[in-house]
Fold this protein.
Amino acid sequence: MRASMLLAATAASLAAIAACASSEEESTPPTAEAPPAPIPDSGLPDVDVDVADADGDTRLPDCSSAGWCVTAFPDADLDFRDVWPFEDVAFAIADSASEGVKFLEWKKSTNAWEYIDDQSQNRPGAFASAVYAPNEDEVYFASGPSSIYRGKRGVPPETKWTWTRTDLPDAIVGHSASHEHGRPYSSAMRERVPVMGVWGFDTANVYAYFSNTIFRRDPADGSWSAVYTVSDLDAASEHAFFVSAAGTGPDDMWFVGARDRSSALSTNLHCPLVVRKTAAGWERIADGVVGTSSSAPCAARAGTQRVGNTFSGWLSNVGRVSATEYVALYNGRSALSTASVELTHIRIGDSDATDGGSAITFAQSAVPLKLGVGSGPPNAAHSLWRGDGETWLSAWGLVLRGADDGTYSTSTLSRDGTAVRASVRRVRGTSNQNLWAVGVRHAFHKTIP
């Protein structure tokens, strides 16, 4: 399959495609630390041998033993930040040291990615963040410093994409202009993390989040308006961030994030944040009062619950388990000292007698990452996706597959058993037969259960 693509590729793109589909072992990205100890299935290094130069076909297979298959993309230095798949196409946003922020489309017919942007996104302060597509012909990207781009595919025979941009306002005032509210520093991840995003259900229900505010797009005129803001900040150094969203419709939406006072030099001073939207309106479910020391990082806030065993952390992804349960990725203090990551289970119970609503409870569970503890990147997961009764997690060089009984196993990415030494930024799919794991110089596609 890949050999036919290479033969069909132009001479200018051969080197980049070969680099993208070759060694599983990549250098550490600029913002990360040295890699941790390999996961325990190490073997000989992944090295592709060109068929034309070998006595017989000795190149690596296109897919790992777990069914993760390499895909070709235009430049070898792409750092994929997010992906949104359909059955025959997928969309992704990436950072590139050579090209800047790039938007891409993958097509099943070619098993290759191509650029579809118009370069207008590469402005001062640009960075790649998130993507959402209601259908195969309309797509939204979030790109720093505070922009949402909407793309429309041309009507055949015209296939060129057209793009429009909206810059979201920042409701936090009085802070240093140098603070990046769309890419704050995460003390759990030990790097700046893009947190602004876009998400929705269909063309009429598209939402964005940036800094402390959730926005909704008016489908009639394309304007964006604020629908919820965390305005009760307790200090000039405090910030609130929405990081992820999930739900089934306008009356079942969950947005998660953090209230934070951390910096690159400080301890973990942050509180998990959960906001829910129902037919009755918006409600702050979980929040806290940020403390001033690591011994008391997050105190109770009146009218809300606290989340997490240490009450200090970010909720960085959320997914729907059922009509009465959601699960969120919790990156907190435990990520810095243990070889595990925590999940927060949000459960909607029976009617609450006090207000006629539904009682909501939180519970924590730990998932071992098997990365080892040392000088490498922290034992924190990058993303979570929930589908087909299973929970998928991605981390440094690793994808974990979790069943509902709480057991997790490694879903092998490597095609020869060598540890993949690169960040897997996002795992997302439409089903367990159409799953993507993308990150630094990698874009894996899985089509077997």
Remarks:
- Residues 101 and 121 are 7 Å apart (CA to CA).
